[in-house]
Write a structure and sequence with these properties.
alpha/beta; 6-stranded mixed β-sheet; 19 helices
């Protein structure tokens, strides 16, 4: 078998014609015969180049409103015939099937049509039949045929034509086939997901272009992000994003989205080490930093408000990895960009997946994202007393933070400011002790503070410790067989306890 093949005839049928003119001109210069359909044929002929219509090639017209144009033995026989197979060659001669050595075809914009909100009739008509069949046939016979399945491959094909003329190597054709199967599998995935309609009856996901990351969780690990990061953020400054950066960015976005009022947060290793809601960005920043100025070093900063010069000057006093905001004033950026590696992101409005995935053992774990947000009406008093309006605000605030903290987790809040949290502990008591110790280290007065727990209190020890620290109200999911023991202690010592009925474990 000859590894190098010469292109003598090309079938071209594309939706996107940008950049196609250079290719067809070069093919014509190399003596390649062009066969095409409908609008593509008109486009080629408008360049002053000869082009045979598919109808003339097959002897059959386009039928069924254009649904059947290329589905014909004279097309697929010419693509699938093995050039070194004697029987195939005999049948080509017997049935007058000309060989087709290059297929340039793309697919109807199915995903874009779905995203546009079009009706089902329009969406169904954008399910490509002829194009996907041509791609698979040409890719299957890559030993003899070149397939270009997307305008993304126009430039690589043009480079080959410029360097080698109408000659391709086996390595060239195999690469194009690989790209073609990536296109076809992604296209079918999009169609399946449309028909599945969120039922998650099977796991199908396809992303064409990975984002190469600096490294994985550790420098010796390679890492990629398969997604459209640029649709969610504009990175306007800083170094290449790493695996750990992305985990922190995701955690920061999930946390800040819980808050409607102006809020600032600092995260470290996916957990909030400072967060506050205030009337101005500057006040929010100062009270956020006060929560844990030590852990803030090297942290991830996020706010749901624009950053001005005054805030930037304060922020710039500490070292941090990333800052995320809806926008920045020009003079604020001049300050923040003084550190060349500092990652500055502008957040865009983008819909995120309501489902979470995690690779596990020999498969993928999937669950609904925890989108539950508790409000005042979701709080049920367990004690004889109900929290004051100020305590209620703080309880809801604390509950939002604990929801996004690694279990076992406890958060302590006062005046919509995180005083401290205990996270990732094997014991809820240890998480509480950690939180109290940290709050005291940074000179917080916990008298009148509230406490949130991501899961129920199995014993009254947590409320006992919290009461001695001055905490006056607590929120938890409830549901322990020993709830009464905790409630009795709270009633006896003037602590208010409410439950949400919703557990917020996070691993």
């Amino acid at each position: 078998m000859t590894a190098t093949k010469h292109v003598k005839r090309a079938l071209i049928s594309v939706y996107h014609k940008e950049g196609l003119d250079e290719i067809v001109r070069k093919l014509h210069e190399e003596g390649v015969r062009l066969v095409s359909t409908g609008g593509t044929q008109v486009f080629i002929e408008s360049l002053g180049l000869p082009c045979e219509s598919v109808e003339d090639h097959t002897g059959y017209p386009s039928i069924l409103g254009g649904r059947v144009k290329t589905l014909h033995p004279k097309v697929f026989g010419g693509i699938l015939a093995r050039r070194e197979n004697e029987t195939d060659q005999q049948q080509l001669t017997e049935y007058n099937l000309p060989e087709i050595d290059l297929v340039i075809v793309d697919l109807y914009p199915f995903e874009q049509t779905v995203a546009s909100g079009a009706g089902e009739t329009s969406i169904i008509e954008k399910i490509d039949i002829g194009g996907i069949s041509l791609i698979r046939a040409a890719a299957k016979n890559y030993k003899d045929v070149v397939v270009v399945a997307s305008k993304a491959q126009y430039i690589p094909l043009l480079h080959i034509l410029e360097e080698k003329g109408a000659e391709t190597t086996l390595e060239d054709r195999r690469w194009f086939a690989k790209e073609a199967f990536a296109i076809s599998s992604g296209y079918d995935t999009a169609i399946f997901n449309y028909f599945d309609n969120g039922e998650e009856s099977a796991f199908r996901m396809a992303v064409d272009t990975p984002m190469h990351l600096r490294y994985g969780e550790n420098p010796h690990q390679k890492a990629w992000f398969f997604g459209a990061f640029e649709k969610a953020f504009d990175q306007i400054h800083g170094k290449e994003i790493s695996y750990n950066n992305l985990l922190d960015i995701d955690a920061a976005i999930n946390l800040i989205d819980e808050f409607n009022e102006l809020t600032f947060a600092i995260l470290k290793h996916n957990n909030a080490c400072g967060i506050a809601s205030r009337s101005t960005v500057l006040e929010a920043w100062k009270d956020t930093l006060a929560g844990d100025p030590v852990s803030a070093f090297g942290g991830i900063l996020i706010t749901n408000a624009n950053i001005d010069k005054e805030v930037a000057e304060e922020i710039n006093k500490i070292f941090f990895e990333i800052i995320i905001a809806p926008d920045y004033d020009t003079d604020a950026l001049e300050i923040l960009m003084q550190k060349k590696n500092r990652i500055i992101l502008i957040r865009k409005e983008v819909k995120t997946s309501p489902v979470q995935y995690r690779s596990l053992l020999n498969g993928v774990l999937m669950q609904d994202k925890d989108l539950s947000i508790q409000k005042v009406n979701d709080l049920t008093a367990m004690t004889d007393t109900y929290p004051t309006p100020r305590e209620t605000e703080d309880l809801l605030f604390a509950n939002k933070i604990v929801k996004h903290s690694k279990s076992n987790a406890i958060t302590l809040v006062k005046n919509k400011q995180l005083c401290a949290s205990g996270v990732g502990q094997t014991s809820r008591v240890d998480a509480l002790k950690q939180a109290i110790e940290k709050a005291q280290t940074f000179h917080f007065d916990l008298s009148g503070a509230v406490m949130a727990s991501d899961a129920f209190f199995p014993f009254p020890d947590c409320v006992e410790i919290a009461g001695r620290a001055g905490i006056t109200a607590t929120v938890q999911p409830g549901g322990s067989i020993n709830d009464k023991l905790s409630v009795d202690y709270c009633n006896k010592h003037g602590i208010t306890m409410v439950k949400t009925g919703i557990r917020h474990f996070k691993h």
